[in-house]
Amino acid sequence: MKISVIGSGYVGLVTGACLAEIGHEVVCTDNDAEKIKILEAGGMPIYEPGLEKVIPKVHKEGRLSFRSNPADAVTFGEAIFICVGTPPLPNGDADLSAIDHVARLIATEARSPKLVVEKSTVPAQTGQELKRALSVYGRKTGVTFRVASNPEFLREGTALGDFLHPDRIVVGVEDEIAEQQLKEIYRPVLERKFKCPVHASGCLDGPAPAWVVTTINSAELIKHASNSFLALKISYANMVADLAERLGADIGEVTRAMGLDPRIGPSFLSAGLGFGGFCLPKDLQAFVHLAERSGVDFSLLREAEKINKKRIDHFFEKMRGALWVVRGKQIGVLGLAFKPNTDDIRFSPAIELVNRLISEGARVCAFDPEAMDRARAILPEIQYAKTAYEAAQDAEALLIATEWPEFGKLDWERIRNAMARPLILDGRNLLSASKMKAEGFEYRSFGRQD
Ligand code: UGA
After folding, report:
1. Same domain, yes or no, for 62 and 139?
2. Are 287 and 339 members of one domain?
3. Which residues have C-beta within 8 Å of that of residue 295, sequence separation ≥ 6?
4. pLDDT score of 348 more than 90
5. What is the number of other CB atoms lying within 10 angstroms of the CB of residue 135?
6. End residue of a domain, out of 214, 243, 271
7. Is 450 domain-assigned?
């Protein structure tokens, strides 16, 4: 099928690349002309593992192309996926102006029937507004629009695998035709009939994804409710970690056993600096606002947000406990991205941590395998190291702010010799406390006996 993707950020590029990979003819567009120029020249505007292989491949095979004029993309696709950003407004609501803009564009430029698929995370009932905008602004052309909600559940860092091997595909539709069109789009994924560009073999043997057909309102709610629940789970684990610390327990042991209960599940119970990124914090906030506006008191989620905001304070208490005075001290920071395997620093707890260190008068030298270019643009005042070892040089404390797997495999003797004082504060519980002690470090982490 001919598909257009409007918005070429993380979600749009992954969606476009994967839809082309499974056999569709795809056009991606963005109002940021620079981004399209980079893509056309064979470059990658973001770091997402695997994308650098899939995009050039499907581009060369002629199934994926880029347009700097979004109107061309509207003309091209039978289905149009809206993947524009919905950033938070100062009051916490989602800013839907980009969606509104795209709706007007589609309404005025379309000359043939279109299936308009809302992929961006939006508050429930946005689909109804989208439908209204399409009919109001498109009234002169007489074109038929079908609106559907197809929330994405992909995680940065594993986005391609998540798209191609989802647990479920949720489609919120208003009629059978829209459902059938979406089924046609996802058929290769549903039937697992494609050559996986991510895994060597065996990935198509598992159970097929669930095909979940709902109303548009429900589909929108599913996305917000899922992300908010994940946030809730993390905050819960963080509170249990604080308690474990005081009661002489070990959070790793506690959550491992909790997770063996299938009603709880093992994921999203890792304690540490808390959740960040462009999705969980903003979706949680927007969900709380949506509940408020709908007359539902969802204070449970406010608590989850509050707990998350206090994680950095708690980490600082630990640091002060070990360092006494922070001002004037040389601190090494490992990790700047909001989680491993991405260069994304939006709402990253690691960035917030560095900002706090600067405001408290510390001298910071940071290292991240992928996120340093982005970090330099917003944090020009710190030093950036070429390696983790350089970040540790002369440091009085080394902070682990993002759990990149490579930080678990460092040469600790080299790190210890480079540091002014062998103190590690592990904000992500990446390392083993007993191993670090055996390596001669003073080691502090969350929810464990240091
Ligand atoms: C999240 C959801 O997991 C996806 O399902 C969803 O599609 C996506 O948002 C979205 O709405 O687009 P993502 O933001 O890429 O995905 O990252 P997550 O893997 O969810 O991690 C979010 C944050 O939680 C990170 O800062 C991570 O370090 C933190 N986290 C995660 C924890 O602190 N503890 C955990 O146990 C798990």
Report:
1. yes
2. no
3. none
4. yes
5. 15
6. 214
7. no
- Residue 139, both tokens: 């009234």
Q: How far apart are CA 404 and CA 418, in angstroms?
A: 20
Q: Distance from CA of residue 351 to its chain's centroid?
A: 15
202: left (phi over 0), alpha (psi -120 to 50) or beta: left
Q: Does residue 422 have a pLDDT over 90?
A: yes
Last residue of a domain, one of 293, 309, 325: 309
pLDDT for 201 beyond 80: no
- Hey, CA dihedral for 289, 292, 296, 298, is it positive or negative? positive
CB atoms within 10 A of CB 280: 22
Q: What is the pLDDT of residues 18-72, one digit of tens each?
A: 999 999 999 999 999 999 999 999 999 998 999 999 999 999 999 999 999 999 9
> How many domains are contained in the chain?
3
Q: What is the CATH number of the domain that holds 192?
A: 3.40.50.720
Which of 155, 238, 251 to probe ligand 1 with, by most ligand atoms within 8 A of CB? Answer: 155
Tell me the residue ranges of DSSP E strands in 52-118: 64-67, 79-82, 114-118
**Domain limits for position 390:** 311-444
Task: Work out which ligand 1 atom sits closest to the CA atom of 348.
Answer: 26
Ramachandran region, residue 282 (left: φ > 0; alpha: ψ -120 to 50; beta: rest): alpha
What local confidence, expressed as pLDDT, does residue 81 receive? 98
Is 266 inside any structural domain?
yes
CA of 259 to the centre of ligand 1 (A): 17
Cβ atoms of residues 55 and 92 within 8 Å: no
The residues lining ligand 1, judged by C-beta closer than 6 Å to any ligand atom, are: 121, 152-156, 227, 230, 234, 268-270, 272, 274-277, 279-280, 338-339
Q: Which ligand 1 atom lies nearest to the CA of residue 234?
A: 34
Burial of 34 (0-12, 13-18, 19+ CB in 10 A): exposed
Tokens of 289: 């606002």
pTM across the whole model: 0.93
CB 3 within 8 A of CB 81: yes
Burial degree of 246 (CB within 10 A; 0-12, 13-18, 19+)? exposed
Tokens representing 14?
A: 């992954």
